[in-house]
Amino acid sequence: MNLQILKDTARSLVAPHKGILAADESFGTIEKRFKALGFESTEDTRRSYREMLFTIPNAEEYVSGVILFDETIRGNAGDGNNFARILETKGMIPGIKVDKGTVELANFPGEKITEGLDGLRDRLAEYKNFGARFTKWRGVITIGDGMPTDTCINSTAELLARYAALAQEVDLVPIVEPEVLMEGEHDMETCRKVTYKTLKTVFMRLSDHKVHLSGMLLKPNMIVPGKGSGHLLNPSEVADATVHVLREVVPAEVPGIVFLSGGMSSVEATSCLNEMNKNADLPWQLSFSYGRALQEDAMKIWNGDNTNWEAGQKAFLHRAKMNSLARSGTYTADSENE
Fold first, then answer.
1. Residues with Cβ within 8 Å of residue 276, at least 6 apart in sequence
2. CB atoms within 10 A of CB 179
3. I need a labelling partner for 186 at 20 to 30 A (CA). Which of 95, 104, 134, 170 fits?
4. What is the DSSP string of 236-283?
5. 8-13-17 Cα angle (round to 5)
6. Is 110 within 8 Å of 140 (Cβ atoms)?
7. pLDDT score for 262
8. Counting beta carbons within 10 angstroms of the beta carbon of residue 255, is it exposed (0 to 12), middle (13 to 18) or buried (19 or more)?
9. Which one, of 178, 93, 167, 89, lies nearest residue 135 by Cα?
10. Which among 113, 111, 101, 180 has a CA at the least distance from the CA of 149?
11. What is the pLDDT of residues 96-138, one digit of tens each?
């Protein structure tokens, strides 16, 4: 392990004014999104869509890195060039999702656990050869009746720590993603308590496994009310609650926190990030690692038709620029019309 490589890559991923594009949708997820727009998810449509995203002129001004899916990092664009190489040439760092999704946690109805640890050491070495320089593993925590249990939180944290240690072993920066889901009728205070406990446990396990905090990134949820709570999302309140929890539990050695959007709209995700970055004297960079909140407009405009490439690219670039402004707390509603 080369700690300097890990530190340099981690800092590059959270460079000022930039963030990460999460383009690591599984086959099932991207099929649902394409189907909702009225076209099929095929190898050709997935390749075409991702090629549209990865070749956007000047996207590297706002995007530091891209998380890829297994199919994508192994694949090529229409001209035969490898996707990871295309990103690297443009100055964006290729990354890879390495977990294999969630399944039911045995004996704990309603709770999930992430699979993919078996054989991970070999897969990490393979992905590194494909050009990956960072990785991501997602664990999920559900709020509900009697949930989350200590078993689910502890098991999720242990898997995240073991994954992170294996990634650092081969000089790949691990993005550690413990997501407290928005689904549910809970209020913000419940989300705050669960997020605090989850993150506290995750960092205990990372310490147990001797993960170098200076060579990793954290990808948490923001503190928000559940979707079914009936409470409106207030970006200022979300920012205050989220930053308060982070100050309590995230060590200063972590170079950056790259938030997930977790079902928020594109504008909500941007607004909340912007409010957080109005805080002074934070020990870490506060950035983004958005999937749908960056891609939604571009995907709708492209709509499976390559004659819409340029318009789709323009929509993506606008959304990326808005989040770039949010990195410095200078985003406003008027920015959307610029």
1. 239, 242, 243, 286, 329
2. 18
3. 104
4. HHHHHHHHHHHHHHS-TT--EEEE--TT--HHHHHHHHHHHTT-SS-S
5. 120
6. no
7. 85
8. buried
9. 167
10. 111
11. 999 999 999 999 999 999 999 999 999 999 999 999 999 999 9
What are 181's two structure tokens? 């889901």
Mean pLDDT of 204-218: 98
Apex 204 CA angle, 108 and 144, nearest 5: 30
Range list of β-strands (E), the chain:
19-23, 63-68, 93-97, 102-104, 112-114, 134-141, 173-180, 217-218, 256-259, 285-290
Q: Which of 112, 136, 219, 321 is catalytic?
A: 219
112 a catalytic residue: no
pTM: 0.96
Distances (CA, A) of 67 to 48, 135, 228, 331: 17, 7, 30, 25
Cα–Cα nearest to 260, from 197, 323, 315, 322:
323
- 85/58 Cα distance (integer angstroms): 16
Residue % of the chain over a pLDDT of 70: 100
Burial class (CB in 10 A: 0-12, 13-18, 19+), 335: middle
Measuring CA to CA, how many Å separate 199 from each of 62, 139, 204, 222? 28, 12, 9, 12
Q: Is the pLDDT of residue 65 over 80?
A: yes
Distance CA 81, CA 112 (A): 37
Residues 6+ apart with CB under 8 A from 212: 1, 3, 6, 168
Encode 79-93 in three state secondary structure. CCCEHHHHHHHHCCE
Question: Within its chain, how far is the Cα of 165 from the centroid?
Answer: 19
Task: Tell me whether residue 200 is one of the annotated catalytic residues.
Answer: no
Catalytic residue among 158, 177, 268, 296: 177
Tokens 């700690």 sit on residue:
3
Instruction: Assess whether pLDDT exceeds 90 at residue 198.
Output: yes
Q: Looking at residue 185, what DSSP letter applies?
A: S
**Cα 330 from chain centroid?**
22
Q: pLDDT tens digits, residue range 176-190?
A: 999 999 999 999 999
Tell me the domains of the chain and their CATH numbers.
3-337 (3.20.20.70)
